[in-house]
Amino acid sequence: MIAVIDYGVGNLFSLCSSLKYVGADTVVTGDPEVIKKADKIILPGVGAFQDARKKLSVNGLDELVIEKAKSGSPVLGICLGMQMLFEESHEYGVHKGLGLIKGKVVAMKGRIPEGLDIPHMGWNALKFHNSSPIFKYINEGDCVYFVHSYFADGCDQSLIASAEYGIRITAAVQSGNVYGCQFHPEKSGNVGLKILKAFCEEDGIQ
Amino acid sequence: MITKRIIPCLDVKNGRVVKGVNFEGLNDVSDPVSLAAYYSNAGADELVFYDITASAEGRQLFTDILKEVASKIFIPLTVGGGINTLDDFDRVLKCGADKVSVNSGAIRNPQLVEEAAKKYGDQCVVLSADIKRVDGRFTVFSKGGRENTGMEAIEWIKRCVGMGAGEVVVNSIDTDGVKQGFDLEMLSAVCDAVKVPVIASGGAGGIDHFTELFKADPCVSAGLAASIFHFGEVKIQDLKKELKKNDILVRL
Protein backbone atom coordinates (compact mmCIF):
# COMPACT_ATOMS: atom_id res chain seq x y z
CA MET A 1 0.00 0.00 0.00
CA ILE A 2 1.12 3.51 -0.86
CA ALA A 3 0.53 6.30 1.65
CA VAL A 4 0.05 9.73 0.10
CA ILE A 5 0.86 12.04 2.97
CA ASP A 6 -1.91 14.52 3.66
CA TYR A 7 -0.56 17.38 5.75
CA GLY A 8 -2.89 20.12 4.55
CA VAL A 9 -0.78 21.35 1.66
CA GLY A 10 -2.26 21.50 -1.81
CA ASN A 11 -4.88 19.57 -3.63
CA LEU A 12 -4.41 15.83 -3.85
CA PHE A 13 -7.31 15.16 -6.22
CA SER A 14 -5.28 14.71 -9.42
CA LEU A 15 -2.48 12.79 -7.75
CA CYS A 16 -4.91 10.32 -6.20
CA SER A 17 -6.84 9.97 -9.45
CA SER A 18 -3.66 9.22 -11.37
CA LEU A 19 -2.47 6.64 -8.81
CA LYS A 20 -5.86 4.99 -8.96
CA TYR A 21 -5.61 5.05 -12.76
CA VAL A 22 -2.33 3.10 -12.73
CA GLY A 23 -3.91 0.61 -10.35
CA ALA A 24 -2.06 1.52 -7.17
CA ASP A 25 -3.45 0.62 -3.77
CA THR A 26 -3.40 4.11 -2.29
CA VAL A 27 -4.42 5.71 0.97
CA VAL A 28 -4.42 9.46 1.58
CA THR A 29 -3.54 9.97 5.20
CA GLY A 30 -1.97 12.13 7.85
CA ASP A 31 -2.22 9.36 10.46
CA PRO A 32 1.25 8.29 11.66
CA GLU A 33 0.03 4.76 12.41
CA VAL A 34 -1.20 4.26 8.86
CA ILE A 35 1.95 5.77 7.37
CA LYS A 36 4.12 3.46 9.49
CA LYS A 37 2.45 0.43 7.94
CA ALA A 38 2.69 1.66 4.33
CA ASP A 39 5.10 0.01 1.85
CA LYS A 40 5.74 3.24 0.02
CA ILE A 41 5.35 6.92 0.69
CA ILE A 42 4.47 9.80 -1.62
CA LEU A 43 5.15 13.27 -0.28
CA PRO A 44 3.22 15.84 -2.37
CA GLY A 45 3.18 19.59 -1.91
CA VAL A 46 2.59 22.99 -3.45
CA GLY A 47 2.98 26.46 -2.02
CA ALA A 48 5.66 27.97 0.19
CA PHE A 49 8.50 25.88 1.62
CA GLN A 50 8.46 27.23 5.16
CA ASP A 51 4.72 26.81 5.61
CA ALA A 52 4.76 23.27 4.21
CA ARG A 53 7.79 22.28 6.29
CA LYS A 54 6.06 23.51 9.44
CA LYS A 55 2.86 21.62 8.64
CA LEU A 56 4.82 18.43 7.96
CA SER A 57 6.37 18.59 11.43
CA VAL A 58 2.92 18.39 13.06
CA ASN A 59 2.48 14.94 14.64
CA GLY A 60 6.09 14.17 13.78
CA LEU A 61 5.28 13.30 10.16
CA ASP A 62 8.67 14.71 9.10
CA GLU A 63 10.56 12.32 11.39
CA LEU A 64 8.36 9.49 10.24
CA VAL A 65 9.18 10.15 6.56
CA ILE A 66 12.89 10.16 7.43
CA GLU A 67 12.49 6.92 9.39
CA LYS A 68 10.61 5.21 6.55
CA ALA A 69 13.21 6.35 4.01
CA LYS A 70 16.07 5.06 6.18
CA SER A 71 14.32 1.73 6.68
CA GLY A 72 14.38 1.23 2.89
CA SER A 73 10.79 2.03 1.86
CA PRO A 74 10.51 3.78 -1.49
CA VAL A 75 9.72 7.47 -0.98
CA LEU A 76 8.70 9.85 -3.76
CA GLY A 77 8.58 13.61 -3.28
CA ILE A 78 6.68 15.64 -5.86
CA CYS A 79 7.28 19.34 -6.58
CA LEU A 80 7.54 21.04 -3.17
CA GLY A 81 7.52 17.54 -1.66
CA MET A 82 10.70 16.86 -3.63
CA GLN A 83 12.27 20.11 -2.52
CA MET A 84 11.68 19.14 1.11
CA LEU A 85 13.84 16.03 0.68
CA PHE A 86 16.95 18.24 0.43
CA GLU A 87 19.13 19.65 3.20
CA GLU A 88 17.85 23.19 3.02
CA SER A 89 15.81 25.71 1.05
CA HIS A 90 16.60 29.36 0.43
CA GLU A 91 13.00 30.38 -0.21
CA TYR A 92 12.40 33.52 1.89
CA GLY A 93 15.21 32.82 4.35
CA VAL A 94 17.05 29.58 4.97
CA HIS A 95 14.95 26.65 6.11
CA LYS A 96 16.00 23.15 7.00
CA GLY A 97 14.71 20.31 4.83
CA LEU A 98 14.50 16.61 5.64
CA GLY A 99 18.11 16.08 4.63
CA LEU A 100 17.47 12.82 2.78
CA ILE A 101 19.21 14.07 -0.37
CA LYS A 102 22.32 16.20 -0.54
CA GLY A 103 21.78 19.66 -2.02
CA LYS A 104 19.82 22.84 -1.50
CA VAL A 105 16.82 24.56 -3.04
CA VAL A 106 17.49 27.97 -4.58
CA ALA A 107 15.59 30.67 -6.49
CA MET A 108 15.52 30.74 -10.29
CA LYS A 109 15.47 34.52 -10.12
CA GLY A 110 18.95 35.85 -10.80
CA ARG A 111 20.16 32.44 -12.01
CA ILE A 112 18.23 32.03 -15.23
CA PRO A 113 18.74 34.47 -18.13
CA GLU A 114 16.74 37.70 -18.20
CA GLY A 115 13.65 37.49 -20.33
CA LEU A 116 12.61 33.99 -19.26
CA ASP A 117 9.39 33.92 -17.27
CA ILE A 118 9.25 32.79 -13.66
CA PRO A 119 7.64 30.45 -12.70
CA HIS A 120 9.09 27.90 -15.08
CA MET A 121 5.67 26.72 -16.19
CA GLY A 122 4.72 24.35 -18.98
CA TRP A 123 5.90 21.24 -20.79
CA ASN A 124 9.65 20.71 -20.96
CA ALA A 125 11.74 17.78 -22.19
CA LEU A 126 13.69 15.48 -19.87
CA LYS A 127 17.39 14.88 -20.32
CA PHE A 128 18.61 11.77 -18.53
CA HIS A 129 21.76 11.85 -16.39
CA ASN A 130 21.52 8.44 -14.81
CA SER A 131 19.32 5.44 -15.27
CA SER A 132 16.55 5.07 -12.73
CA PRO A 133 13.82 2.48 -12.16
CA ILE A 134 11.18 5.25 -12.29
CA PHE A 135 12.13 5.97 -15.90
CA LYS A 136 11.89 2.37 -17.08
CA TYR A 137 8.75 3.04 -19.15
CA ILE A 138 9.71 6.44 -20.61
CA ASN A 139 12.34 7.83 -22.97
CA GLU A 140 14.78 10.68 -22.91
CA GLY A 141 13.21 13.72 -24.58
CA ASP A 142 9.73 12.96 -23.26
CA CYS A 143 7.99 16.09 -21.98
CA VAL A 144 6.62 16.59 -18.49
CA TYR A 145 4.71 19.44 -16.86
CA PHE A 146 6.50 21.90 -14.56
CA VAL A 147 5.27 24.75 -12.34
CA HIS A 148 7.92 26.14 -9.99
CA SER A 149 10.05 29.17 -9.13
CA TYR A 150 12.75 27.44 -7.05
CA PHE A 151 14.92 24.46 -7.97
CA ALA A 152 17.36 22.02 -6.39
CA ASP A 153 21.04 22.76 -6.83
CA GLY A 154 24.28 21.06 -5.79
CA CYS A 155 22.76 17.63 -6.20
CA ASP A 156 24.88 16.19 -9.03
CA GLN A 157 25.26 12.87 -7.25
CA SER A 158 21.53 12.23 -7.15
CA LEU A 159 20.57 13.94 -10.43
CA ILE A 160 18.76 11.52 -12.73
CA ALA A 161 17.03 14.00 -15.08
CA SER A 162 17.17 17.68 -15.91
CA ALA A 163 15.31 20.14 -18.10
CA GLU A 164 16.79 23.09 -19.94
CA TYR A 165 15.45 26.55 -19.08
CA GLY A 166 18.27 28.92 -19.88
CA ILE A 167 20.26 26.85 -17.41
CA ARG A 168 20.10 23.22 -16.32
CA ILE A 169 17.13 22.76 -14.02
CA THR A 170 16.98 19.70 -11.75
CA ALA A 171 13.96 17.71 -12.90
CA ALA A 172 14.33 14.45 -10.96
CA VAL A 173 16.65 12.96 -8.35
CA GLN A 174 17.24 9.58 -6.80
CA SER A 175 19.33 8.56 -3.84
CA GLY A 176 18.83 4.85 -3.19
CA ASN A 177 15.18 4.32 -2.35
CA VAL A 178 14.41 8.06 -2.16
CA TYR A 179 13.06 9.70 -5.34
CA GLY A 180 12.02 13.21 -6.22
CA CYS A 181 10.30 14.84 -9.20
CA GLN A 182 10.26 18.61 -9.56
CA PHE A 183 7.59 18.26 -12.25
CA HIS A 184 4.05 17.01 -11.73
CA PRO A 185 3.73 13.41 -12.96
CA GLU A 186 -0.01 13.59 -12.22
CA LYS A 187 -0.31 16.39 -14.81
CA SER A 188 2.17 15.04 -17.36
CA GLY A 189 -0.17 12.88 -19.42
CA ASN A 190 0.87 9.33 -20.27
CA VAL A 191 4.54 10.00 -19.52
CA GLY A 192 3.66 11.02 -15.97
CA LEU A 193 1.41 8.00 -15.49
CA LYS A 194 4.26 5.73 -16.60
CA ILE A 195 6.59 7.29 -14.02
CA LEU A 196 4.02 6.76 -11.26
CA LYS A 197 3.42 3.18 -12.41
CA ALA A 198 7.15 2.49 -12.30
CA PHE A 199 7.43 3.95 -8.79
CA CYS A 200 4.48 1.83 -7.66
CA GLU A 201 6.36 -1.26 -8.83
CA GLU A 202 9.48 -0.48 -6.82
CA ASP A 203 10.29 -2.90 -4.01
CA GLY A 204 12.61 -0.74 -1.98
CA ILE A 205 15.67 -1.84 -0.10
CA GLN A 206 15.29 -4.68 2.36
CA MET B 1 12.97 24.85 -23.23
CA ILE B 2 9.27 25.16 -22.65
CA THR B 3 7.19 23.99 -25.60
CA LYS B 4 4.48 26.07 -27.23
CA ARG B 5 1.10 24.90 -26.04
CA ILE B 6 -1.96 23.99 -28.10
CA ILE B 7 -5.16 24.36 -26.11
CA PRO B 8 -8.64 23.28 -27.20
CA CYS B 9 -11.43 25.13 -25.46
CA LEU B 10 -14.74 23.50 -24.56
CA ASP B 11 -17.84 25.58 -23.86
CA VAL B 12 -20.10 23.66 -21.54
CA LYS B 13 -23.77 24.50 -21.09
CA ASN B 14 -26.06 22.46 -18.85
CA GLY B 15 -23.57 19.63 -18.84
CA ARG B 16 -23.06 19.41 -22.60
CA VAL B 17 -20.40 20.76 -24.91
CA VAL B 18 -21.85 23.51 -27.05
CA LYS B 19 -21.13 23.66 -30.80
CA GLY B 20 -21.61 20.55 -32.85
CA VAL B 21 -18.62 18.31 -32.92
CA ASN B 22 -17.95 15.56 -35.37
CA PHE B 23 -15.15 13.08 -34.90
CA GLU B 24 -14.53 9.62 -36.09
CA GLY B 25 -14.67 7.17 -33.23
CA LEU B 26 -16.44 9.56 -30.93
CA ASN B 27 -20.08 8.67 -30.54
CA ASP B 28 -21.34 11.25 -28.12
CA VAL B 29 -19.78 14.42 -29.46
CA SER B 30 -21.29 16.70 -26.85
CA ASP B 31 -20.21 14.66 -23.84
CA PRO B 32 -17.47 16.72 -22.13
CA VAL B 33 -15.76 13.66 -20.66
CA SER B 34 -15.41 11.81 -23.97
CA LEU B 35 -14.31 14.92 -25.79
CA ALA B 36 -11.74 15.79 -23.13
CA ALA B 37 -10.32 12.25 -23.33
CA TYR B 38 -10.22 12.51 -27.11
CA TYR B 39 -8.24 15.76 -27.00
CA SER B 40 -5.93 14.51 -24.28
CA ASN B 41 -5.03 11.46 -26.36
CA ALA B 42 -4.72 13.59 -29.49
CA GLY B 43 -1.89 15.60 -27.92
CA ALA B 44 -3.60 18.67 -26.45
CA ASP B 45 -1.24 20.31 -23.94
CA GLU B 46 -3.97 21.68 -21.76
CA LEU B 47 -7.75 21.90 -21.77
CA VAL B 48 -9.94 24.89 -21.05
CA PHE B 49 -13.49 24.43 -19.85
CA TYR B 50 -15.82 27.40 -19.94
CA ASP B 51 -19.00 27.08 -17.99
CA ILE B 52 -21.62 29.09 -19.85
CA THR B 53 -24.50 27.84 -17.73
CA ALA B 54 -26.70 30.35 -16.01
CA SER B 55 -28.65 28.18 -13.55
CA ALA B 56 -27.52 26.81 -10.20
CA GLU B 57 -28.44 23.27 -11.28
CA GLY B 58 -26.31 23.66 -14.36
CA ARG B 59 -23.42 24.83 -12.23
CA GLN B 60 -23.64 21.78 -9.97
CA LEU B 61 -23.72 19.57 -13.05
CA PHE B 62 -20.66 21.37 -14.38
CA THR B 63 -18.64 20.71 -11.23
CA ASP B 64 -19.67 17.05 -11.27
CA ILE B 65 -18.49 16.77 -14.86
CA LEU B 66 -15.28 18.60 -14.10
CA LYS B 67 -14.55 16.08 -11.37
CA GLU B 68 -15.09 13.23 -13.77
CA VAL B 69 -12.86 14.83 -16.42
CA ALA B 70 -10.13 15.55 -13.86
CA SER B 71 -10.17 11.97 -12.63
CA LYS B 72 -9.53 10.64 -16.15
CA ILE B 73 -7.44 13.23 -17.95
CA PHE B 74 -3.98 13.91 -16.60
CA ILE B 75 -3.01 17.18 -18.25
CA PRO B 76 -3.52 20.69 -16.86
CA LEU B 77 -7.12 21.89 -16.76
CA THR B 78 -8.20 25.51 -16.75
CA VAL B 79 -11.73 26.42 -15.80
CA GLY B 80 -13.55 29.66 -16.52
CA GLY B 81 -17.05 31.05 -16.65
CA GLY B 82 -19.03 32.32 -13.70
CA ILE B 83 -15.97 32.91 -11.53
CA ASN B 84 -16.90 35.84 -9.30
CA THR B 85 -15.70 34.98 -5.81
CA LEU B 86 -13.01 33.07 -3.95
CA ASP B 87 -15.66 30.44 -3.26
CA ASP B 88 -15.94 29.92 -7.02
CA PHE B 89 -12.18 29.39 -7.16
CA ASP B 90 -12.43 26.92 -4.33
CA ARG B 91 -15.31 25.05 -5.92
CA VAL B 92 -13.52 24.33 -9.20
CA LEU B 93 -10.06 23.76 -7.71
CA LYS B 94 -11.48 21.10 -5.41
CA CYS B 95 -12.83 19.33 -8.49
CA GLY B 96 -9.38 19.03 -10.01
CA ALA B 97 -8.92 22.30 -11.93
CA ASP B 98 -5.32 23.54 -11.96
CA LYS B 99 -5.98 27.09 -13.07
CA VAL B 100 -8.97 29.36 -12.91
CA SER B 101 -9.74 31.93 -15.53
CA VAL B 102 -11.44 35.21 -14.59
CA ASN B 103 -13.00 37.71 -16.97
CA SER B 104 -16.17 39.65 -16.11
CA GLY B 105 -15.77 38.73 -12.45
CA ALA B 106 -12.45 40.56 -12.35
CA ILE B 107 -13.92 43.57 -14.17
CA ARG B 108 -16.68 43.83 -11.57
CA ASN B 109 -14.26 43.29 -8.70
CA PRO B 110 -10.55 43.62 -9.58
CA GLN B 111 -9.62 42.69 -5.99
CA LEU B 112 -10.63 39.13 -6.87
CA VAL B 113 -7.40 38.73 -8.88
CA GLU B 114 -5.27 39.86 -5.96
CA GLU B 115 -7.08 37.82 -3.33
CA ALA B 116 -7.04 34.67 -5.47
CA ALA B 117 -3.35 35.07 -6.33
CA LYS B 118 -2.50 35.44 -2.64
CA LYS B 119 -4.54 32.43 -1.65
CA TYR B 120 -3.76 30.02 -4.50
CA GLY B 121 -0.59 31.42 -6.08
CA ASP B 122 -0.09 33.50 -9.22
CA GLN B 123 0.21 30.43 -11.43
CA CYS B 124 -3.38 29.56 -10.61
CA VAL B 125 -4.96 32.83 -11.75
CA VAL B 126 -5.53 33.33 -15.47
CA LEU B 127 -6.84 36.67 -16.70
CA SER B 128 -9.01 36.30 -19.76
CA ALA B 129 -9.68 39.53 -21.64
CA ASP B 130 -12.08 40.08 -24.55
CA ILE B 131 -10.63 42.95 -26.52
CA LYS B 132 -11.93 44.99 -29.45
CA ARG B 133 -10.64 48.06 -31.20
CA VAL B 134 -12.87 51.07 -30.56
CA ASP B 135 -11.75 54.20 -32.43
CA GLY B 136 -8.33 52.62 -32.85
CA ARG B 137 -7.98 51.92 -29.13
CA PHE B 138 -7.76 48.40 -27.63
CA THR B 139 -10.83 48.28 -25.39
CA VAL B 140 -11.94 45.65 -22.85
CA PHE B 141 -15.41 44.20 -23.24
CA SER B 142 -17.28 42.25 -20.58
CA LYS B 143 -20.16 39.77 -20.48
CA GLY B 144 -18.92 37.62 -23.32
CA GLY B 145 -18.02 40.60 -25.49
CA ARG B 146 -21.42 42.28 -25.26
CA GLU B 147 -20.60 45.23 -23.04
CA ASN B 148 -18.01 47.96 -23.64
CA THR B 149 -16.27 48.71 -20.35
CA GLY B 150 -14.46 51.72 -21.76
CA MET B 151 -11.21 50.45 -20.20
CA GLU B 152 -8.01 50.52 -22.24
CA ALA B 153 -6.93 46.89 -22.61
CA ILE B 154 -3.17 47.07 -22.13
CA GLU B 155 -3.55 49.11 -18.94
CA TRP B 156 -6.15 46.66 -17.64
CA ILE B 157 -3.92 43.66 -18.34
CA LYS B 158 -0.91 45.33 -16.73
CA ARG B 159 -2.99 46.12 -13.67
CA CYS B 160 -4.20 42.53 -13.32
CA VAL B 161 -0.72 41.07 -13.81
CA GLY B 162 0.51 43.54 -11.19
CA MET B 163 -2.11 42.11 -8.83
CA GLY B 164 -0.93 38.57 -9.46
CA ALA B 165 -2.52 37.16 -12.63
CA GLY B 166 -0.01 34.55 -13.76
CA GLU B 167 -1.15 34.17 -17.33
CA VAL B 168 -3.22 36.18 -19.82
CA VAL B 169 -5.62 34.92 -22.48
CA VAL B 170 -6.03 37.56 -25.17
CA ASN B 171 -9.25 37.03 -27.06
CA SER B 172 -9.54 39.42 -29.97
CA ILE B 173 -13.19 40.12 -30.73
CA ASP B 174 -12.04 41.68 -34.02
CA THR B 175 -10.56 38.45 -35.34
CA ASP B 176 -12.79 35.96 -33.49
CA GLY B 177 -14.84 33.79 -35.83
CA VAL B 178 -13.32 35.37 -38.94
CA LYS B 179 -10.77 32.55 -39.36
CA GLN B 180 -8.23 34.82 -41.01
CA GLY B 181 -5.55 34.34 -38.39
CA PHE B 182 -4.74 35.52 -34.88
CA ASP B 183 -4.63 39.22 -34.02
CA LEU B 184 -0.85 39.59 -34.17
CA GLU B 185 -0.88 43.33 -33.60
CA MET B 186 -2.93 43.05 -30.42
CA LEU B 187 -0.91 40.08 -29.15
CA SER B 188 2.36 41.83 -29.71
CA ALA B 189 1.12 44.87 -27.77
CA VAL B 190 0.22 42.61 -24.82
CA CYS B 191 3.49 40.62 -24.98
CA ASP B 192 5.47 43.87 -24.87
CA ALA B 193 3.56 45.03 -21.80
CA VAL B 194 3.72 42.01 -19.48
CA LYS B 195 6.18 39.31 -18.47
CA VAL B 196 3.76 36.43 -17.93
CA PRO B 197 2.72 33.82 -20.50
CA VAL B 198 0.30 35.15 -23.13
CA ILE B 199 -2.22 32.85 -24.79
CA ALA B 200 -3.61 33.80 -28.18
CA SER B 201 -7.30 33.28 -28.85
CA GLY B 202 -9.60 34.26 -31.66
CA GLY B 203 -9.03 33.95 -35.37
CA ALA B 204 -7.45 30.55 -35.98
CA GLY B 205 -8.70 29.16 -39.27
CA GLY B 206 -5.99 26.66 -40.11
CA ILE B 207 -2.58 25.24 -39.32
CA ASP B 208 -0.77 28.11 -41.03
CA HIS B 209 -2.24 30.60 -38.60
CA PHE B 210 -0.54 28.85 -35.69
CA THR B 211 2.79 28.75 -37.51
CA GLU B 212 2.40 32.43 -38.33
CA LEU B 213 1.52 33.18 -34.69
CA PHE B 214 4.55 31.50 -33.13
CA LYS B 215 6.92 32.77 -35.84
CA ALA B 216 5.66 36.35 -35.64
CA ASP B 217 5.86 36.68 -31.90
CA PRO B 218 8.12 34.20 -30.15
CA CYS B 219 6.76 35.55 -26.85
CA VAL B 220 3.30 34.06 -27.32
CA SER B 221 3.19 30.90 -25.22
CA ALA B 222 0.10 29.15 -26.50
CA GLY B 223 -2.65 29.10 -29.08
CA LEU B 224 -6.22 28.46 -28.04
CA ALA B 225 -9.07 27.53 -30.35
CA ALA B 226 -12.43 25.84 -30.28
CA SER B 227 -14.32 25.35 -33.52
CA ILE B 228 -11.42 24.40 -35.80
CA PHE B 229 -10.59 21.56 -33.42
CA HIS B 230 -14.19 20.63 -32.71
CA PHE B 231 -15.10 20.45 -36.38
CA GLY B 232 -11.99 18.43 -37.13
CA GLU B 233 -10.70 21.07 -39.56
CA VAL B 234 -7.38 20.93 -37.78
CA LYS B 235 -6.09 17.79 -36.08
CA ILE B 236 -3.82 18.57 -33.15
CA GLN B 237 -1.18 15.98 -34.12
CA ASP B 238 -0.99 17.35 -37.69
CA LEU B 239 -0.75 20.87 -36.34
CA LYS B 240 2.09 19.98 -33.99
CA LYS B 241 4.01 18.10 -36.66
CA GLU B 242 3.78 21.11 -38.93
CA LEU B 243 4.95 23.43 -36.15
CA LYS B 244 7.89 21.14 -35.48
CA LYS B 245 8.81 21.25 -39.17
CA ASN B 246 8.95 25.00 -38.82
CA ASP B 247 11.39 24.72 -35.91
CA ILE B 248 8.79 25.59 -33.31
CA LEU B 249 9.21 23.60 -30.13
CA VAL B 250 6.21 21.40 -29.37
CA ARG B 251 5.43 18.31 -27.33
CA LEU B 252 4.83 15.45 -29.73
Summarize the amount of helix of chain A as a percent range: 10-25%
- The total beta strand count of chain A reads 14
> Strand fraction band of chain B?
15-25%
Series of secondary-structure elements of chain A, N-terminal to C-terminal:
EHEHEHHEHEEEEEEEEEEH
- What is the strand arrangement across the widest sheet of chain A? 2-1-3-4-14-13-12-9
Q: What is the CA-atom radius of gyration of chain A, in angstroms?
A: 15 Å
Order of helices and strands of chain B: EEHEHEHEHHEEEHEHEHEHH
Secondary-structure topology with pairs:
The complex is a heterodimer of chains A (206) and B (252).
Chain A: E1 2-5, H1 13-21, E2 26-29, H2 32-37, E3 40-43, H3 49-57, H4 61-70, E4 75-78, H5 80-83, E5 86-89, E6 95-96, E7 101-107, E8 120-125, E9 127-128, E10 143-148, E11 150-153, E12 159-165, E13 167-175, E14 178-181, H6 189-200
Chain B: E1 5-13, E2 16-17, H1 32-42, E3 47-51, H2 56-70, E4 77-80, H3 86-94, E5 99-102, H4 104-108, H5 111-120, E6 125-134, E7 137-142, E8 147-152, H6 153-162, E9 167-172, H7 184-193, E10 198-201, H8 207-216, E11 220-225, H9 227-230, H10 236-245
Parallel strand pairs in B: 1-3, 1-11, 3-4, 4-5, 5-6, 6-9, 9-10, 10-11
Antiparallel strand pairs in B: 1-2, 6-7, 7-8
